[in-house]
């Protein structure tokens, strides 16, 4: 097990002992994720290239003999408590995740007793590295282990996705939860949302590194605009299907179908989807050939498409990408995740990471008076759980 993770588990477990007197009986953990390329493709059954990072949510849990559920957030120093079968209204958003997971799990697998748990995490919130999926996946893994539920990993991530849909009211795809559950140390995943399957490729980047820069901008529009994109692309597919009977689903679409879409905005959305899927395949090829200049160019093309065709970027993200692209040791850069804030991901020469970070930090502070945070994450294994 990752040594850093082990240390965090020990801390969370000690905190549990303080709060609930006595040791937890099991622990579950789930990482955040990055996504190299393939953005806003998951809910349209496309392709992506994510990997889990060394930032986690940890759940320490112990069953209770009664019907009480008591969950403490170590980060927020806040506790939610309710009795199974009694009405409960989650107040904060962390409570919505927790209550959503427990309720969806409980509807499937009858909960005959309660539990107490502590949740702790260091996945940055609102940075586009999927802190919310990490909570869901960690807690769902804890529940599966605690109630010895016969549930495979794919069912588990789909149940986590339902939490987003039903409790957070965001119709997100499976990218975040899938990456959090299925990632492997040192690997990138080529994830096919149509098949719901993944291939793993070696993430050895030779003299290059993936560097994230955080805009620190809250993703306020993210929820509503996200749902708008889901609707726009679904409507466009419906229109294409009505005009071309050979089209069954998103993956049958090619550039030649764009002219069948009457709304020019929807046409741009589908163009992003079709070309982004092609870019994922080209990126996998470039990676296998260790052609990092090509890989970088694909990242930058992805950003242009997300900015101009899919319209999910924002001035701060564009600024960080443009600043990165001024530097000769940066092969490419793009916004990462849902957009409207969060962070960028850039492909940077390892020996220039320090210079890169300083340049971006200075430029961004000058323009926005905000201190960006630069990160170079390790790629780690996906979620897990074990008895203590
Ligand atoms: C968010 C969503 C994901 C995915 C990305 C964009 O992270 O939660 O499902 O759609 O945006 O690729």
Automatic annotation (TrEMBL):
GO biological process, one term: galactose metabolic process
Domain GHMP kinase N-terminal, residue spans: 97-182
Highest taxon listed in the record's lineage: Bacteria
EC number(s) stated in the UniProt entry for this protein: 2.7.1.6
Primary enzyme class: transferase
GO molecular function: ATP binding; galactokinase activity; metal ion binding
Residue ranges annotated for the Galactokinase N-terminal domain, each copy included: 16-63
InterPro entries in the cross-refs: Galactokinase, Galactokinase_CS, GalKase_N, GHMP_kinase_C_dom, GHMP_kinase_C_sf, GHMP_kinase_N_dom, Mevalonate/galactokinase, Ribosomal_Su5_D2-typ_SF
Signal peptide positions on this chain: none
PROSITE patterns: GALACTOKINASE
Residue ranges of every copy of the GHMP kinase C-terminal domain listed in the record: 283-364
Coiled coil: none
UniProtKB keywords: ATP-binding, Carbohydrate metabolism, Cytoplasm, Galactose metabolism, Kinase, Magnesium, Metal-binding, Nucleotide-binding, Transferase
Pfam family name, one: GHMP_kinases_C
Family per record: Belongs to the GHMP kinase family. GalK subfamily.
PANTHER family to which the protein is assigned, alphabetical: GALACTOKINASE-RELATED, MEVALONATE KINASE/GALACTOKINASE
Protein name: Galactokinase
Lineage of origin: Bacteria, Pseudomonadati, Bacteroidota, Cytophagia, Cytophagales
């Amino acid at each position: 097990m990752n040594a850093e993770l082990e240390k965090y588990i020990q801390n969370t477990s000690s905190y549990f002992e303080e709060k609930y007197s006595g040791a937890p009986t099991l622990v579950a953990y789930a990482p955040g994720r990055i996504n190299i390329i393939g953005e806003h493709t998951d809910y349209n059954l496309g392709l992506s290239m994510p990997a889990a990072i060394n930032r986690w949510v940890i759940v320490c849990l112990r069953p209770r003999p009664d019907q009480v559920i008591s969950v403490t957030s170590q980060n927020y120093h806040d506790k939610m408590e309710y009795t199974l079968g009694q009405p409960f209204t989650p107040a904060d958003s962390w409570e919505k995740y927790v209550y959503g997971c427990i309720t969806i799990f409980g509807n499937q697998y009858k909960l005959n007793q309660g539990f107490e748990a502590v949740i702790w995490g260091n996945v940055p919130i609102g940075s586009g590295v999927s802190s919310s999926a990490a909570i869901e996946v960690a807690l769902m893994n804890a529940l599966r282990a605690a109630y010895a539920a016969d549930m495979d990993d794919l069912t588990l991530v789909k149940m986590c996705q339902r939490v987003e849909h039903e409790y957070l009211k965001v119709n997100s795809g499976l990218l975040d939860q899938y990456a959090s559950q299925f990632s492997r140390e040192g690997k990138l995943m080529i994830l096919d949302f149509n098949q719901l399957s993944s291939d793993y490729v070696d993430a050895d980047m030779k003299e290059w590194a993936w560097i994230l820069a955080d805009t620190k901008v809250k993703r306020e529009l993210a929820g509503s605009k996200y749902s708008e994109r889901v609707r726009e692309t679904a409507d466009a597919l419906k229109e294409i299907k009505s005009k071309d009977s050979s089209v069954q689903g998103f993956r049958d679409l090619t550039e030649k179908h764009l002219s069948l879409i009457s709304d020019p905005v929807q046409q741009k959305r589908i163009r992003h989807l079709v070309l982004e899927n092609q870019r994922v395949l080209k990126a996998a090829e470039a990676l296998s050939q260790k052609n990092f200049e090509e890989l970088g160019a694909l990242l930058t093309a992805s950003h242009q498409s997300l900015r101009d065709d899919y319209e999910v970027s924002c001035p701060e993200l564009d600024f960080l990408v443009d600043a990165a692209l001024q530097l000769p040791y940066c092969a490419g850069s793009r916004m990462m995740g849902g957009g409207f804030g969060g962070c960028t991901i850039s492909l940077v020469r390892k020996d220039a990471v320090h210079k890169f970070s300083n340049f971006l930090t200075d430029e961004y502070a000058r323009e926005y008076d905000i201190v960006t945070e630069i990160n170079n994450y390790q790629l780690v294994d996906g979620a897990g759980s074990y008895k203590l």
